[in-house]
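request received
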Amino acid sequence: MANSRFEYVKQFEREHHLLPDTYIVIRVDGKGFHKFSEEYKFDKPNDLRALQVMNRAAQAVMSQFSDVLMAYGDSDEYSFLLRKQCSLYERREMKLITMFASSISTNYYYYWNEEFPEKPLKQSRLPNFDARAVTYPNFSLIRDYFSWRQVDCHINNLYNTTFWTLVSKGGMTPKEAENKLIGTVASDKNEILFSQFGINYNNEPEIFKKGTILMREMTQEESEVNESELSSRQKQRIEKKRKKAEIKTYHEDLITNENFWTSRPWLSL
Amino acid sequence: MANSRFEYVKQFEREHHLLPDTYIVIRVDGKGFHKFSEEYKFDKPNDLRALQVMNRAAQAVMSQFSDVLMAYGDSDEYSFLLRKQCSLYERREMKLITMFASSISTNYYYYWNEEFPEKPLKQSRLPNFDARAVTYPNFSLIRDYFSWRQVDCHINNLYNTTFWTLVSKGGMTPKEAENKLIGTVASDKNEILFSQFGINYNNEPEIFKKGTILMREMTQEESEVNESELSSRQKQRIEKKRKKAEIKTYHEDLITNENFWTSRPWLSL
Amino acid sequence: MANSRFEYVKQFEREHHLLPDTYIVIRVDGKGFHKFSEEYKFDKPNDLRALQVMNRAAQAVMSQFSDVLMAYGDSDEYSFLLRKQCSLYERREMKLITMFASSISTNYYYYWNEEFPEKPLKQSRLPNFDARAVTYPNFSLIRDYFSWRQVDCHINNLYNTTFWTLVSKGGMTPKEAENKLIGTVASDKNEILFSQFGINYNNEPEIFKKGTILMREMTQEESEVNESELSSRQKQRIEKKRKKAEIKTYHEDLITNENFWTSRPWLSL
Amino acid sequence: MANSRFEYVKQFEREHHLLPDTYIVIRVDGKGFHKFSEEYKFDKPNDLRALQVMNRAAQAVMSQFSDVLMAYGDSDEYSFLLRKQCSLYERREMKLITMFASSISTNYYYYWNEEFPEKPLKQSRLPNFDARAVTYPNFSLIRDYFSWRQVDCHINNLYNTTFWTLVSKGGMTPKEAENKLIGTVASDKNEILFSQFGINYNNEPEIFKKGTILMREMTQEESEVNESELSSRQKQRIEKKRKKAEIKTYHEDLITNENFWTSRPWLSL
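response:
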């Protein structure tokens, strides 16, 4: 629409198109969820219903954006893998990250109301998420990326499990528990849990130890290789299949399990 | 926290710090609000309650981020002016725009529930917003920026008012109304409204014609000039005053009204 | 060194580190070489000595920066391929492109004096080059990149050869020759050369038709695969070998010749 | 020119347009000039002829690019101020910095030959420069920028003068001189020069103490204010005047001398 002599101010806008032919990971991260979890009295160290809110919200984001092939999350963060050939919003970084930040936030809100009808969200403490996009030039990096996040989940969960056991069952103040854990390594924490509280960390629920993997399950045939050589009708058909593909949930090891990746060759296409 | 051999993948992350000493405008824009307004049956051409949801959400964002000095919005978009010295999130662009996108979205959700208790939001149509940041090196550009948005509000509202009058009072189909308006200029539309429907566009509500201005009203004294020369205690005091400053709402001309700007010298500091 | 209260102006500087693990192509391009070639009376359509100046300058750049594995050039442009693991100047884009622009310029100057001792360069027409860096996430793109440049060389050389033959042997003015060639395709130009002037384009020198390839010839052993797993002493040894490796010159097809690439697996490491 | 199926690789190129309406400073910096000065046996601490090469090269760059209003340099670096309204190369950062890097390099080469006909440059040690561009949103920052560089010149020159006096007149080894100067402040160095060698630093040549300022001297009338309101013919006339304006050389204080700036209002336009 024709506009005004003021329109020149648009010239100050800058776009950044993410490098083509690279995998895009968009990671969303809860803003101030420590206080959020206190405000709404989350179970410690893990609140299963709050995790369900997060997982359902992430699944909704994944349903909305069919370029997302898989996602991984724990606590208040989630990482979404967008396929290499993705041209969503012409790969404009600003558009991509703000839409993901917005979508995870409103979906969290929506599923919160479903999971916690007794705890309506207050305006003074709404669920907000930042987001960032990172591009990776090859799939080996993608595997290492998700391994990084799963190791992080493990480290945090072992710490939190031990910390909250010391507090809730060991009668320590948070400060005392914190001091006790300074300088400890994984085996020390396992030992504290086992010898003092009879807890075998390995028996903790997988969703806590491994986080949650959301996978758009395709078949080989649905994920034909060289998209750049397909006709536009073929592309539409694949796109449709991708949208209809079932999104499944897993809580399992993705670091050492080679088969996890090799059985899903479409991820790297 | 010490982590793993996978942590190197962080090296692929990129940050962009917005140029210091420039005004930052963050504009949020509703995603697919045409369909959103159909889904929830907005009044046409303007739904006053929906505008209130938007305005209250924008005011909440402004309360949350005290670096925002003023904001302007109409329809499903809002522009926030951040002061030149703003160091929020170290001026990291990604963090700024995703936090604004997230915050406007969840606040819209919150105030929607207050304004429209009879129309709960559906998961299939949640309110989402993208966001972008633009930096401007001088205040004259900021005035032109807001003039650009207010002219745009005017053009859109005159069009929409005429279009929906042709449909609702003139009995035209949307297609017929669209065709009738092709090639018309402002005076043509004014004439259609007046001669065919007895509507004087000038008498339409100011909130529709001018949009909404949110202003953090400071006093001269509260906005001392050279922040870089202040002690950190003085800075904290000013920051506190900024947070407490009342946010007022206006629906008035900001293009030709010189006094609008000159009476608020703190905006450009 | 401790400095002054003015040092804060450094905060306005911005760096851009090129994405790790991607191939970097730096392309330098002569500034105003049309006029340069007129000023110094180049032979038309190709001046062999001027090409040698360019080729020798490019080879000098390649000797200076051992991360350059190969280069391709014709006319007044050259493209340098930097290996995927290159960490020269920490992959800072500004530093890389300005150093390449500077180095090709002064080397051109140096070798000009060697090739054209009778035509000293004038201050009013010095040889200048711009430069740009492009990152490519996989090697298939690198092959297409060099194919793109070699096709471009072919198109330009066929045009120039025909154009200058029409002028020098056909007695046309440049304007007449230009008009005659409008709308012609490759076969038309071949036909003009052959039927009017008895010139078989295929017999033109390879350096004109194919451009020039500079190749740092390694052996398999010299280019061990996973550099990230090597000790720093091993890295130094490989770096030393790379520096000493002979740089060979070719004028051959790199588009359809599969063996050109497969026989040099180190290029993609 | 129509090209090939390979042309898609251009999509990986990225451009960065510098923010409009900001001052641009392009700083070029000699690469490895410590070794360069040893190779060509510069006088220590300052080689007047080498400084003249640098100054003449910088002046040539300034003549070539009429958007440069002033420049400041010392040793092997130079900073060029481009006017706020500059649209050279559409403000593309890559193009600007590589052209400046190339131009200063070849001009240095040219004037080296004039100043040092007895010392031809060797291929193994050519004069190379990197370059960077920085944008500044207001002129007060520009004054601080040049003050920063002049303070830096002063600090370096006082150090070098004392160091080389200790070596050449005091009979110290470089290592001994270095150790003697560790921890000394400006007054200590002045004292060493005066008490041990009878040298009053204030009497050192201004070109060494203050560096060199190149100024495109305009008149008020030649630099009319609001270029955006001028007709294109008026712009061409001003551009022509800017090109013809004399470039004068100064070695004076620009930090405390208010008049230096206020007498040249066109710099900030």
